[in-house]
Structure formats: structure tokens, C-alpha cells
Amino acid sequence: MGGGSYSRKKGARSKIKKYKKKAWLCHRAKDTDQIQDELEKSAETGVPAGKFEYDDELPGGGQFYCVETGKHFADAKALADHKKSRYYKRRCKELKEEKYTQAMAEAAGGMTKEKLPPAHGGKKST
Asked: What sections of the chain are H helices per DSSP?
């Protein structure tokens, strides 16, 4: 059934900005600072960050989760292969770096917090 012609050309949506943005957002990985927050929180509470209850909607029931990249896998072999990949190793390297804070951003933007001495030496006029 349905051997008719297709009304739209292939790739017709490739130039539509909102379609591209939606497609990009749904596959976007977690940011480094979000993962660092999760790891800090798990260290404080003592509960492992990658611990999930069984969920049918997640791959592998949510039992095979990589904390560093924030991805679920179907089985233990897929997770082990992922941990050998270049993407995983790069992400681990990024997570070892210091967190980027608001103070660092302001310093980079030239908004210093240092207190300068008065311009005229603080002389009092009589």
C-alpha cells in the first residue's frame, strides 16, 4: 500500500531553523557543569549518581548508565565498549577540570572586584 508519490522533496526541512534547533535539542548531551553537580551531590549523600530503579522506557531498563556522559545503554557490553571510546575519555578529561564559575566569567569579561585606592590620595581641603 501507499506507493504514491511523496509531496515534499527529501531534505526540504533542512533549511528551516526551528526544525534544526528542535532536532538538535532533543539529542543534546548534558553539560559538564550539570554532571559535576550530580557527582558532588552523590558524594555528599553517599548514593551513587548512576543508580536508577528499573524503568521500561529507558534502554536496558535504566540499569546501565554512564554518569560521566549522562547516557543509558542496553546492556553491560555496550557500556563497557562506550567506556573505551574517545568521546568518554574526552568527557572524563573535561570533568577533571575546575568548574567554570560566575566569578571566573566576570573576571574574563573585565568586571574586576578589586578595590582601588582613591584617585587624589584622600587629601582633605581646609
From this structure: 17-26, 32-45, 76-82, 86-96, 102-108
